[in-house]
Amino acid sequence: MGANIKNLRIRIKSVDSTLHLTNAMGLVASSKIRKATEKMMKAREYSAAHEESINLLLACRESEKSPFVKKHEGNRTKIIVIAGDRGLAGGYNSNVFKLAAQYPDAEIRTIGKKAAERFDTAPISVEKFTYADCIGLARDLCRGYAENEFDKLFVIHTNYISVMSQEAVITQLLPLNTENKKASTGIIFEPDELTVLNALIPEYVAGKLYAFVRESNACEQVARRNAMDSASKNAEDMLDSLYLEYNRARQGAITQEITEIVAAY
Q1: Which fold has domain 15-228?
Q2: Close Cβ partners of 233 (under 8 Å, ≥ 6 residues apart)
């Protein structure tokens, strides 16, 4: 009986320690969510403005001559995989990796330390990835596509649907999708439409990348907070059960001692 009580005390102490940890991690994630979602909304607006300009330019007849609109005949695929910097975020990272696994022949570049671990690439923090970093990456990617180094460019990232719902998705960036182009508005671009389009595309790609990075980071923080809330609830339920078992064991031990004392007389 005494050994059982001792084991229960050890288990209670262990679960209580875990509960303190999950509560602390949940609070840290909660403090980051507001800042992350604010950055996400601003990045979305910036990307949408670029997309509006690109769709206007794609309506021009000359846009078909752009190297970023022309489709390549091959199937060499490059994918930018955006995951988190840390674990303990529920299925956030694993959902991204499951989607990436569907493209075993693709060339992978990563943003996020967990993605770097998964694909054995240089560690790059998604939380600290700036717009300047996106500009540098976008220019390199656009140059590579124009020089026929690969045929398609995709990004695997996570869509923020709501606080309780996030979804890993894949989005094509190059060649440009011309399905959403607007009807010609008669706007005159200087020096000409094609020059302006080609100059804007790296900025457009950078804007999309930055929006995906900020949205994915917001999803990571929300997923971690939700995971820690769930873990804390499970720990509390386990503690209640252990305390009940512990109190019963103590009561049994006390009853046994009283019985032995009475029997001795």
Answers
A1: Pyruvate Kinase; Chain: A, domain 1 (3.40.1380)
A2: none
